[in-house]
């Protein structure tokens, strides 16, 4: 039997309320030391990535988020049985613990900001042309005109980026005050000015929303997409690549698991 | 269902896909059964859904919180 992984939680206890996962399967926690892997049993990997399956996965992770710190697993993470799951938990234990501590009582918010790139560039060009006119009037040499032409495109791009930086800086000042961590991506496409995610403490959620409200109602005239609270998908950092266990480590594995279970008060897994 | 609500739900789905298919804990190694198709499907969806054109279509309606809308 394969195990479908929804996420890692900061608890080795069984989940109290019943949660149903993919295809209505029963979701439960497999403890490892003081953390747990939340899984359901699955016979075969899902062949089709359907909207329904993705939503079912996300629904489980969101339910977990209500009661635990959770590291959401990527969709379609399927482990080849319990022994493999325990090997994986052992390999990643420190990483998982570190992330779970960072995420304690926090959630993720996403902010996308769209600006009218063509309009912005047109305005920049207008200003440049004005300056150019002044220069041409004072110095109408052909070499000067050539250089101006040559660098016009470059200047537009440079000014475009500078404007983007300026807008992002203003917005980020508002949001960063209430965020523990952030990731910002500038100009993913020319219209997508900012694609940002912020990790926010749950008790600062309202402050963060208010900050967004201020920005949204401000004079910048941009379009916004605000989403959340999310499980912290964007902030999971795993430093350790999963290694195949060496023989000696393999031999120690079950001893360690047994010790962990004893510490956690779990009889069997 | 109003057009704005439909668009809002599309945005919600895009946000979910962007996270669930591409982010979070990614385990590598022999213990994990890899499903390589997910990457390809994700790539296709990303191109389809997060293109500027798609975002531009949403400009007609106000960007309210899609999570709130979905719940």
Low-confidence stretches of chain B: 59-71
How many structurally independent domains of chain B? 1
Shape of chain A, please? Answer: elongated
Secondary structure class of chain A reads alpha+beta
How far apart are the first and last residues' alpha carbons of chain B, in Å? 15 Å
**Tally of extended strands of chain A?**
10
List its traits.
heterodimer, A: 269 residues, alpha+beta, 6-stranded antiparallel β-sheet, 4-stranded antiparallel β-sheet, 6 helices, elongated, disordered C terminus, B: 71 residues, mainly alpha, rod-shaped
Care to describe what's here?
Chain A has helices at residues 51-67, 82-103, 117-138, 142-176, 205-216, 247-264, and strands at residues 2-9, 19-20, 26-32, 35-42, 70-72, 78-79, 106-114, 179-186, 192-201, 223-230. The longest helix of chain A is centred in the middle third of the chain and has 35 residues, at 142-176. Helix content of chain A is 47%, strand content 24%. With 269 residues, chain A is α+β, with helices and mostly antiparallel strands. The model of chain A is unreliable at 242-251 and 261-269 (pLDDT under 50). Chain A folds into two domains: 2-104 and 241-264, no CATH class; 108-230, no CATH class. Chain A has six helices and ten strands. Chain B is built from four helices and one strand; from the N terminus they run αβααα. Chain B has helices spanning 3-20, 37-49, 52-57, 66-70, and one strand at residues 32-33. The radius of gyration of chain B is 15 Å and the shape is rod-shaped. Classes of the chains: A alpha+beta (269), B mainly alpha (71). The A-B interface holds A 2, 5, 7-8, 45-47, 49, 51, 54-55, 57-58, 71-80, 84-85, 87-88, 91-92, 96, 110, 112, 114, 189-192, 223-231, 233-234, 236, 238, 241-244 and B 11-13, 15-17, 19-33, 35, 37-38, 41, 51-52, 55-56, 58-59, 63-67. Strand 6 (78-79) of chain A pairs antiparallel with strand 1 (32-33) of chain B.
């Amino acid at each position: 039997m394969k195990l479908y992984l929804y996420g890692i939680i900061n608890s080795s206890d069984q989940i109290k309320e019943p949660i149903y996962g993919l295809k209505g399967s029963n979701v439960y926690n497999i403890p490892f030391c003081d953390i747990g892997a939340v899984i359901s049993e699955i016979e075969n990997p899902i062949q089709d990535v359907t909207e329904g399956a993705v939503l079912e996965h996300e629904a489980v992770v969101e339910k977990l988020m209500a009661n635990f710190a959770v590291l959401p697993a990527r969709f379609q993470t399927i482990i080849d049985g319990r022994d493999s799951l325990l090997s994986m938990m052992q390999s990643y234990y420190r990483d998982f613990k570190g992330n779970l501590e960072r995420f304690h009582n926090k959630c993720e918010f996403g902010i996308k900001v769209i600006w009218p790139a063509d309009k912005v560039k047109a305005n920049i060009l207008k200003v440049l042309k004005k300056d150019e006119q002044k220069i041409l009037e004072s110095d109408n040499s052909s070499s000067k005109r050539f250089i101006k032409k040559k660098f016009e495109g470059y200047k537009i791009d440079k000014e475009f980026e500078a404007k983007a930086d300026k807008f992002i800086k203003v917005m980020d000042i508002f949001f960063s005050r209430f965020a523990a961590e952030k990731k910002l991506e500038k100009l993913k496409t020319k219209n997508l000015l900012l694609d940002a995610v912020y990790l926010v403490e749950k008790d600062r959620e309202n402050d963060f929303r208010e900050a967004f409200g201020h920005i949204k109602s401000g004079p910048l005239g941009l379009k916004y997409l605000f989403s959340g609270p999310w499980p912290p998908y964007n902030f999971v950092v795993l430093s350790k690549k999963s290694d195949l266990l060496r023989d000696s480590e393999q031999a120690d594995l079950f001893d360690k698991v047994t010790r962990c279970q004893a510490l956690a008060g779990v009889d069997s897994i | 269902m109003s057009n704005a609500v439909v668009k809002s739900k599309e945005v919600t789905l895009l946000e979910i896909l962007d996270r669930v298919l591409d982010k979070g804990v990614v385990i590598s190694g022999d213990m994990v059964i890899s499903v390589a198709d997910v990457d390809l499907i994700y790539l296709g969806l990303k191109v389809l859904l997060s293109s500027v054109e798609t975002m531009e279509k949403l400009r007609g309606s106000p960007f309210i919180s899609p999570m709130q809308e979905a719940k």
